[in-house]
Amino acid sequence: MTQTLLTRIAEAREGAPRTRRAILDAILGDPDRALAESFEQLAERSGSSVPTIMRTCRDLGLAGLREFKLALAQELAVGGSPLHRRVDIADTASDVVAKIARSAAASVAGVRDQLDLQQLAAVVDAIATAPHIDVYGAGNTSWFMATDLQARLFRLGLSTTAWADYHLQQVAAGAQKPGGVVIAITHVGGMPSLLDAVEIARAQGAKVVAITRPGTPLAERADWVLGLRVPDDAVMHVGIDAYLAHLTLIEILTVLVAQRVGEPAVQRLRGVRSALQQHGIDVRTHPLQSWNGGGVSNG
To answer: Domain containing 172 — which CATH number?
Structure first.
Protein backbone atom coordinates (compact mmCIF):
# COMPACT_ATOMS: atom_id res chain seq x y z
CA MET A 1 0.00 0.00 0.00
CA THR A 2 1.24 3.50 -0.82
CA GLN A 3 2.46 5.36 2.24
CA THR A 4 0.76 8.59 3.19
CA LEU A 5 2.77 11.80 3.29
CA LEU A 6 2.46 12.12 7.06
CA THR A 7 3.64 8.51 7.46
CA ARG A 8 6.68 9.25 5.31
CA ILE A 9 7.37 12.35 7.39
CA ALA A 10 7.13 10.36 10.62
CA GLU A 11 9.54 7.73 9.30
CA ALA A 12 11.94 10.34 7.94
CA ARG A 13 12.06 11.94 11.37
CA GLU A 14 13.81 8.91 12.84
CA GLY A 15 17.53 9.43 12.49
CA ALA A 16 17.19 12.85 10.82
CA PRO A 17 19.64 15.63 11.78
CA ARG A 18 18.44 17.97 14.52
CA THR A 19 17.48 20.87 12.25
CA ARG A 20 15.64 18.67 9.78
CA ARG A 21 13.90 16.79 12.60
CA ALA A 22 12.61 20.13 13.93
CA ILE A 23 11.02 20.82 10.53
CA LEU A 24 9.36 17.42 10.44
CA ASP A 25 8.13 17.80 14.03
CA ALA A 26 6.59 21.18 13.19
CA ILE A 27 4.68 19.63 10.29
CA LEU A 28 3.54 16.58 12.25
CA GLY A 29 2.55 18.65 15.27
CA ASP A 30 0.14 20.86 13.31
CA PRO A 31 -0.34 19.83 9.66
CA ASP A 32 -3.08 22.45 9.11
CA ARG A 33 -0.76 25.22 10.22
CA ALA A 34 2.04 23.90 8.02
CA LEU A 35 -0.38 23.98 5.10
CA ALA A 36 -1.34 27.59 5.79
CA GLU A 37 2.10 29.10 6.34
CA SER A 38 4.89 29.95 3.93
CA PHE A 39 8.28 28.24 3.92
CA GLU A 40 9.69 31.35 5.59
CA GLN A 41 7.17 31.06 8.41
CA LEU A 42 7.79 27.33 8.79
CA ALA A 43 11.54 27.99 8.88
CA GLU A 44 11.12 30.58 11.64
CA ARG A 45 8.81 28.33 13.66
CA SER A 46 11.13 25.33 13.41
CA GLY A 47 14.37 27.25 13.84
CA SER A 48 15.66 26.14 10.44
CA SER A 49 16.09 27.72 7.00
CA VAL A 50 14.24 27.72 3.69
CA PRO A 51 17.03 25.80 1.86
CA THR A 52 16.86 23.09 4.54
CA ILE A 53 13.08 22.86 4.10
CA MET A 54 13.51 22.57 0.33
CA ARG A 55 16.01 19.73 0.79
CA THR A 56 13.62 18.04 3.20
CA CYS A 57 10.81 18.24 0.62
CA ARG A 58 13.03 16.68 -2.04
CA ASP A 59 13.96 13.87 0.33
CA LEU A 60 10.22 13.21 0.70
CA GLY A 61 9.87 12.98 -3.08
CA LEU A 62 8.38 16.46 -3.53
CA ALA A 63 9.89 19.10 -5.81
CA GLY A 64 9.06 22.17 -3.74
CA LEU A 65 6.51 24.24 -1.86
CA ARG A 66 3.65 23.84 -4.33
CA GLU A 67 3.99 20.07 -4.53
CA PHE A 68 4.32 19.78 -0.75
CA LYS A 69 1.19 21.83 -0.09
CA LEU A 70 -0.87 20.04 -2.71
CA ALA A 71 0.12 16.63 -1.32
CA LEU A 72 -0.55 17.73 2.26
CA ALA A 73 -3.91 19.34 1.36
CA GLN A 74 -5.04 16.19 -0.43
CA GLU A 75 -4.10 14.06 2.56
CA LEU A 76 -5.81 16.33 5.06
CA ALA A 77 -8.95 16.20 2.94
CA VAL A 78 -9.30 12.50 3.73
CA GLY A 79 -10.81 11.60 7.07
CA GLY A 80 -12.84 13.71 9.47
CA SER A 81 -16.57 13.12 9.69
CA PRO A 82 -19.68 13.61 7.56
CA LEU A 83 -19.91 17.06 9.17
CA HIS A 84 -16.57 18.45 7.98
CA ARG A 85 -13.42 16.97 6.51
CA ARG A 86 -11.27 18.09 9.48
CA VAL A 87 -13.78 17.68 12.32
CA ASP A 88 -14.41 14.52 14.31
CA ILE A 89 -17.82 13.77 15.79
CA ALA A 90 -16.46 13.89 19.35
CA ASP A 91 -14.62 17.23 18.96
CA THR A 92 -15.39 19.99 21.45
CA ALA A 93 -16.69 23.40 20.37
CA SER A 94 -13.18 24.77 20.81
CA ASP A 95 -11.79 22.04 18.56
CA VAL A 96 -14.42 22.72 15.89
CA VAL A 97 -13.71 26.46 15.87
CA ALA A 98 -9.95 25.94 15.68
CA LYS A 99 -10.05 23.25 13.00
CA ILE A 100 -12.48 25.01 10.68
CA ALA A 101 -10.66 28.34 11.08
CA ARG A 102 -7.31 26.71 10.27
CA SER A 103 -8.82 24.89 7.30
CA ALA A 104 -10.28 28.12 5.93
CA ALA A 105 -7.03 30.01 6.46
CA ALA A 106 -5.10 27.27 4.66
CA SER A 107 -7.42 27.49 1.66
CA VAL A 108 -6.94 31.24 1.37
CA ALA A 109 -3.17 30.99 1.85
CA GLY A 110 -3.02 28.30 -0.83
CA VAL A 111 -4.29 30.72 -3.48
CA ARG A 112 -0.95 32.52 -3.54
CA ASP A 113 1.01 29.38 -4.32
CA GLN A 114 -1.32 28.16 -7.08
CA LEU A 115 -1.77 31.26 -9.22
CA ASP A 116 0.18 31.59 -12.46
CA LEU A 117 1.20 35.25 -12.41
CA GLN A 118 1.75 35.40 -16.17
CA GLN A 119 -1.75 34.08 -16.80
CA LEU A 120 -3.10 36.51 -14.21
CA ALA A 121 -1.40 39.49 -15.87
CA ALA A 122 -2.79 38.52 -19.27
CA VAL A 123 -6.29 38.20 -17.82
CA VAL A 124 -6.04 41.62 -16.16
CA ASP A 125 -4.99 43.27 -19.44
CA ALA A 126 -7.81 41.57 -21.35
CA ILE A 127 -10.47 42.61 -18.82
CA ALA A 128 -9.24 46.20 -18.51
CA THR A 129 -9.39 46.75 -22.28
CA ALA A 130 -12.46 44.68 -23.18
CA PRO A 131 -15.44 46.47 -24.77
CA HIS A 132 -17.73 44.16 -22.78
CA ILE A 133 -17.34 41.42 -20.19
CA ASP A 134 -19.78 38.58 -19.55
CA VAL A 135 -19.51 36.56 -16.34
CA TYR A 136 -21.07 33.10 -16.26
CA GLY A 137 -21.85 31.22 -13.06
CA ALA A 138 -22.80 27.53 -13.01
CA GLY A 139 -24.50 26.55 -9.76
CA ASN A 140 -25.60 28.51 -6.69
CA THR A 141 -22.16 29.24 -5.28
CA SER A 142 -20.63 30.09 -8.65
CA TRP A 143 -23.60 32.33 -9.46
CA PHE A 144 -23.05 34.31 -6.27
CA MET A 145 -19.39 34.76 -7.13
CA ALA A 146 -20.28 35.76 -10.70
CA THR A 147 -22.62 38.51 -9.50
CA ASP A 148 -20.03 39.67 -6.97
CA LEU A 149 -17.36 39.95 -9.67
CA GLN A 150 -19.81 41.69 -12.02
CA ALA A 151 -20.66 44.30 -9.38
CA ARG A 152 -16.98 44.94 -8.66
CA LEU A 153 -16.01 45.38 -12.31
CA PHE A 154 -19.07 47.53 -13.01
CA ARG A 155 -18.06 49.89 -10.19
CA LEU A 156 -14.71 50.32 -11.93
CA GLY A 157 -16.55 51.59 -15.00
CA LEU A 158 -16.29 48.39 -17.04
CA SER A 159 -19.26 47.19 -19.06
CA THR A 160 -20.07 43.89 -17.35
CA THR A 161 -23.05 41.54 -17.17
CA ALA A 162 -23.50 38.38 -15.09
CA TRP A 163 -25.57 35.48 -16.40
CA ALA A 164 -26.93 32.48 -14.48
CA ASP A 165 -29.55 31.15 -16.90
CA TYR A 166 -27.92 28.63 -19.22
CA HIS A 167 -30.01 29.68 -22.22
CA LEU A 168 -29.19 33.36 -21.70
CA GLN A 169 -25.50 32.51 -21.32
CA GLN A 170 -25.57 31.09 -24.82
CA VAL A 171 -27.55 34.07 -26.16
CA ALA A 172 -25.02 36.46 -24.59
CA ALA A 173 -22.17 34.38 -26.00
CA GLY A 174 -23.62 34.75 -29.48
CA ALA A 175 -23.64 38.53 -29.03
CA GLN A 176 -19.96 38.70 -28.05
CA LYS A 177 -17.43 40.39 -30.31
CA PRO A 178 -13.67 40.25 -30.88
CA GLY A 179 -11.89 41.75 -27.90
CA GLY A 180 -14.72 40.84 -25.55
CA VAL A 181 -14.10 38.69 -22.49
CA VAL A 182 -16.11 35.86 -20.96
CA ILE A 183 -15.28 34.84 -17.39
CA ALA A 184 -16.70 31.41 -16.55
CA ILE A 185 -16.76 30.50 -12.86
CA THR A 186 -17.37 26.92 -11.77
CA HIS A 187 -15.45 24.72 -9.36
CA VAL A 188 -16.64 21.53 -11.07
CA GLY A 189 -15.95 22.80 -14.59
CA GLY A 190 -18.01 20.31 -16.58
CA MET A 191 -21.54 21.69 -17.05
CA PRO A 192 -22.40 20.91 -20.72
CA SER A 193 -24.52 24.02 -21.29
CA LEU A 194 -21.77 26.26 -19.89
CA LEU A 195 -19.21 24.58 -22.12
CA ASP A 196 -21.48 25.22 -25.10
CA ALA A 197 -21.73 28.92 -24.18
CA VAL A 198 -17.96 29.18 -23.93
CA GLU A 199 -17.53 27.60 -27.35
CA ILE A 200 -20.07 30.02 -28.86
CA ALA A 201 -18.28 33.02 -27.33
CA ARG A 202 -14.92 31.90 -28.67
CA ALA A 203 -16.42 31.47 -32.13
CA GLN A 204 -17.43 35.15 -31.95
CA GLY A 205 -13.84 36.15 -31.23
CA ALA A 206 -14.15 36.63 -27.46
CA LYS A 207 -11.47 35.49 -25.04
CA VAL A 208 -12.45 33.06 -22.28
CA VAL A 209 -11.16 33.12 -18.71
CA ALA A 210 -11.85 30.00 -16.64
CA ILE A 211 -11.93 30.17 -12.85
CA THR A 212 -12.07 26.48 -12.05
CA ARG A 213 -9.98 23.48 -11.09
CA PRO A 214 -7.05 22.72 -13.40
CA GLY A 215 -7.73 19.96 -15.91
CA THR A 216 -11.51 20.38 -16.11
CA PRO A 217 -13.31 20.44 -19.49
CA LEU A 218 -13.81 24.18 -18.99
CA ALA A 219 -10.09 24.70 -18.40
CA GLU A 220 -9.33 22.90 -21.64
CA ARG A 221 -11.61 25.27 -23.58
CA ALA A 222 -10.36 28.52 -22.06
CA ASP A 223 -7.75 30.97 -23.32
CA TRP A 224 -6.57 31.55 -19.76
CA VAL A 225 -7.07 29.42 -16.66
CA LEU A 226 -6.96 30.79 -13.12
CA GLY A 227 -6.91 27.34 -11.61
CA LEU A 228 -7.41 26.50 -7.95
CA ARG A 229 -7.25 23.09 -6.32
CA VAL A 230 -9.00 22.81 -2.97
CA PRO A 231 -9.97 19.75 -0.92
CA ASP A 232 -13.45 18.32 -1.45
CA ASP A 233 -16.12 19.07 1.14
CA ALA A 234 -17.83 16.38 3.20
CA VAL A 235 -21.27 18.00 3.03
CA MET A 236 -21.62 20.58 0.26
CA HIS A 237 -21.05 20.01 -3.45
CA VAL A 238 -18.84 23.10 -3.36
CA GLY A 239 -17.60 23.63 0.19
CA ILE A 240 -16.41 26.62 2.16
CA ASP A 241 -12.77 26.03 1.22
CA ALA A 242 -13.50 26.40 -2.50
CA TYR A 243 -15.81 29.31 -1.77
CA LEU A 244 -13.18 31.27 0.16
CA ALA A 245 -10.40 30.47 -2.31
CA HIS A 246 -12.45 31.72 -5.26
CA LEU A 247 -13.55 34.87 -3.42
CA THR A 248 -9.90 35.59 -2.62
CA LEU A 249 -9.05 35.20 -6.29
CA ILE A 250 -11.88 37.57 -7.25
CA GLU A 251 -10.55 40.16 -4.80
CA ILE A 252 -7.04 39.85 -6.25
CA LEU A 253 -8.37 40.12 -9.79
CA THR A 254 -10.49 43.19 -9.01
CA VAL A 255 -7.64 45.08 -7.35
CA LEU A 256 -5.25 44.33 -10.21
CA VAL A 257 -7.81 45.45 -12.79
CA ALA A 258 -8.38 48.68 -10.84
CA GLN A 259 -4.63 49.31 -10.85
CA ARG A 260 -4.53 48.65 -14.59
CA VAL A 261 -7.44 51.01 -15.35
CA GLY A 262 -5.94 53.71 -13.14
CA GLU A 263 -7.45 57.17 -12.63
CA PRO A 264 -10.80 56.48 -14.36
CA ALA A 265 -11.43 53.60 -11.96
CA VAL A 266 -10.66 55.77 -8.94
CA GLN A 267 -12.95 58.54 -10.19
CA ARG A 268 -15.71 56.03 -10.81
CA LEU A 269 -15.39 54.60 -7.30
CA ARG A 270 -15.49 58.09 -5.80
CA GLY A 271 -18.64 58.88 -7.77
CA VAL A 272 -20.36 55.71 -6.61
CA ARG A 273 -19.38 56.34 -3.01
CA SER A 274 -20.60 59.95 -3.17
CA ALA A 275 -23.97 58.87 -4.58
CA LEU A 276 -24.42 56.26 -1.86
CA GLN A 277 -23.52 58.73 0.88
CA GLN A 278 -25.94 61.37 -0.45
CA HIS A 279 -28.80 58.91 -0.25
CA GLY A 280 -27.89 57.61 3.20
CA ILE A 281 -26.87 54.16 2.01
CA ASP A 282 -23.23 54.61 2.99
CA VAL A 283 -22.87 57.08 5.85
CA ARG A 284 -19.31 56.25 6.82
CA THR A 285 -16.55 58.79 6.36
CA HIS A 286 -13.92 57.72 3.84
CA PRO A 287 -10.61 59.40 3.02
CA LEU A 288 -10.46 61.22 -0.28
CA GLN A 289 -8.45 59.33 -2.87
CA SER A 290 -6.51 60.40 -5.92
CA TRP A 291 -4.38 58.74 -8.55
CA ASN A 292 -0.72 59.75 -8.51
CA GLY A 293 0.35 57.82 -11.58
CA GLY A 294 1.73 54.93 -9.60
CA GLY A 295 -1.24 54.02 -7.50
CA VAL A 296 -3.98 55.29 -5.24
CA SER A 297 -3.05 57.74 -2.49
CA ASN A 298 -5.07 59.36 0.27
CA GLY A 299 -5.30 63.10 0.28
So the answer is: 3.40.50.10490
